[in-house]
Write a structure and sequence with these properties.
Elements: H1 8-21, H2 24-37, H3 43-58, H4 62-75, H5 80-93, H6 97-110, H7 119-142, H8 149-163, H9 167-176, H10 181-195, H11 199-218, H12 223-241, H13 253-258, H14 260-274, H15 281-294, H16 302-308, H17 311-319, H18 337-350, H19 355-373, H20 378-392, H21 396-404, H22 411-418, H23 423-439, H24 445-458, H25 464-477, H26 494-507, H27 513-526, H28 530-537, H29 540-549, H30 555-568, H31 574-578, H32 587-599, H33 601-606, H34 610-622, H35 625-632, H36 638-651, H37 655-663, H38 666-675, H39 679-695, H40 698-701, H41 706-709, H42 711-716, H43 724-738, H44 742-751, H45 766-779, H46 783-792, H47 794-805, H48 811-827, H49 829-835, H50 841-849, H51 854-868, H52 872-879, H53 882-892, H54 900-917
Helix pairs in contact: 1-2, 2-3, 3-4, 4-5, 5-6, 5-7, 7-8, 7-9, 8-10, 9-11, 10-11, 10-12, 11-12, 11-14, 12-15, 14-15, 15-18, 17-18, 19-20, 20-23, 22-23, 22-24, 23-24, 23-25, 24-25, 25-26, 25-27, 26-27, 27-30, 29-35, 30-36, 35-38, 36-38, 36-39, 38-39, 39-43, 43-45, 45-48, 47-48, 47-50, ...
Amino acid sequence: MPKSNMTTQKWKVEGDEEFNKGNWSKALSYYTNAIEIVTEDNTEKALYYDKRSATYFELRDYDKTIEDCNSVMKIYHKILSVSMFRRFLALIELERFEEARQDMKMILCYSDNTMSQSLPTQFHEISHKHIKEKVSQMMGLAFNVSVDKEERENAMINMLRLASWRTDACEIFIKEVKEDDEAICSAIRIVDELCQNNINQTEPTMINVVLPWCLEMMNSKSTERVNASQYCLQNILNKYSGMNNEPSTKPDEALCEEHKKEINTILSCLLNSVESKTITGLARDAIIELITRNIHYTALDWAKRLVKFDGLKKLMEVASQLEEYQYESSFDITYSTRTIISMSLAKIWKNMDRNIDKGIFVYTIDKFIKDKLFASDTESKLRGVVAITTLIFGPLEVADRIIFTNPSTGCMRILDMAKTDDVLQQKVVCECLVAAMTNFDEVNALINEGVKILRIFLYQSKDDVIRIQALVGFCEWSKFKTCGYISKPFWGEATNKLVKVCRRLLINPKKEKNIIKWAVKGLSYLTLDGNVKDELIKDQQIIQTVFELAKISDQSVLYSVATTLVNVCNAYERLMIESTFQPTFIPEMEESMKFLKFYFLEEYLSKNDEDFVQKRRCLLVKNGVTGALVSLAKTGNQNCKELTARVFSAICGKEELTKTVVQQGGTKALLSLALDGTDKGKKIASQVLVHLAHTLPPEDAFPGDLMMDVVQPITNLLNPEYSVNERCEALTALCNLASVKDSMRLHIFNDSGFENFNNYMNDNHNMVDCAYAKLINNLVLCRKVAIQYVKQRYYQLGYLIALSVVSNVDERAKKAAVEAVTTLTAVSEEACEKLLRWDIWPKFLYFLLNNPDNYLQRKGIEIALNMVNSTKDVAAKLIKTDTIMKQVRELSKNDTIQNEEIKELASLVLEAAAKWNQEIEGNVEGNESSDSIA
């Protein structure tokens, strides 16, 4: 039938038939025809718009769907809720989530009146299904590595936007995550972002869904996955406590009180996970670290609540575990777990501010240890000793109360375990004794009796690890002042035998981490022997093994590796061996030097010849020690950083070794050491950087941005507290850097604390004066620096002038100062004007023009030329100074060959003066001046 003969109702009927058949295109055409026939905006037309919007939705033309829904809602409000629901779904599809959120609010609002009772339920069911499909679609993009990066990022962003108002999106998302480490890490980060939105909307999801899910996802051997989960858990706590990830953050007391229940739930869940036998050691460490990180906040009150929730016992259960020894009730732990537990216990104890709380703490720990030590089975006894060892490295006050001042704890029972033939019991007791000797500064009952056990039962053991443990115990015990160094573990052939034991343990491809710790610790003592150093450096296999150990994460091993390298290359100062000990040195190093002096001084002195030392250093560099030092520089242990800086300093003494260190990436490591570490360590590393700047071309020593970065640590050496030589070397290093390019000169002048250079102007030392003048001379070669220098450092211009004329100043300093003034007056008219403000200027210029040194004389005439070519006032002042102009005229008439260039410059001064003559009152030839020099 022709279109003109069809009524709107017939078009609508045919459209409905085609719609029901799924013929969307035909239905769309029929509904459009119906709309076009109706000329007025009425109920009938609104209905046809509604029908067409449904068709557009089925065709996935969501923009057109929204347009028709808008048309419906403009005309007729009774079908508003249905059209709005359809528009809501279309907005979701177009990822216009904020608009969709507004529609959802309106739909739920209309449900109270215009919608049927069942529609809200239907709405939630349909929207939930729709959002689930949308979440799956976005996840498919976000986790698909073959998809374009920008598209993946957009999918993640849209996921966050969707979940910002639909908390069920987060739940759906979590349930859809597949068991793949990379996907899980991405998912955790997304969930973390979701939880950082409005807390009122995400609160139920965080505690009921995200918290248990994060703990579940954390149960992994993937470091990245565990770290991501830990970060997410911290952010959940932050949302309830008002904290952020800034170092200075603190909880909001009011917010903590409001969310007290949720915060306690988080702690309870963490503590339950600590004692779980099903989680990985890596996850357990992360959970304990998370507790420790937040334990000191008073507003959270976690320290006391931890005790209330039986957390101390749970932590002690972990503290008594041994990674290398597994039994039926074992937890999975890492090599770092007990160290982390020690730190946690120490921090909890520190936050026990009331005596009653401290009493509960001590009682709980004491009961746990006694229950283990006095049990009948060997496993419990072992765990009791291990718990004591962990406690010794934690809260020392508690360890002293429980173990060393309370004989009933079972000290003798511990020592009796060492007398058995059970190697495992001997190892555990030996480690406990060494820990006690390391951490207490006076002899107590356990240590005094323990050293006898070391000597009689453990040092003579057939087990290599026990022998090395006993060796370390002897060495630590020998440091006690009250012991008088009466125990000598290095008698006869013992040293050579022990070195062989350490070597065998370290090069064993199946070596365990615990064995590594003891073997490298033993080596750090044995290498105080000069003969051991010489033999060790020839052993390629053991040297490479030591270098590889520098790359592991255990701090105790890294410190022993650094100490061994310090010993091998004699990276300590002679003063420390032969005289008094300076308080600036780290205590551990002072103890080592005392130990060396008592046991190995004769061997040290016999092997301290320069040839012996340099040979060892050359071999270290040749074998690749730089790579090991680069790894050691990344450690968080400040004392270890200082030792690393000392080794760098020792091996960079020769130019050929310095070149190798730089080529192997040592400069960047040195920079990090110069910026972070002990004061002594930072100074040593900065001095090595100065040495590099002296020894090598700056572009080679400090490639790329490093040249800019090293300026600050070098500038730090200009502290007036340092010696003249140290400051002079630092200034010279900066001078070398300033010789490279203008950007470097500008950086030194503007960004390195140049204003502090004023401290060195009054040093009254020729070396410093000379170095300072040379630096200024190099800096002002940059025009921008020269202009700024004149504007900001007017008084320093006078200092340069004074340097030039004072009789007791070194000639090199004078020439550098004069060169700087010449450059400044050539670049800046303001410099010429400010020069005249100093009463000494005529004497300065006359001194140069009348100087027998051709270089200074030439610079004098150049300054005069710069002045006469400057402003009218400056030129007039110069021209009216008769003694200066008289000297210029004499130089212009000088016929000696060596002064030919000076003669030409003098003539130029006179020519310029003649040009000014017409404007300046009086005649140049006949002027008298009050500024004449007597």
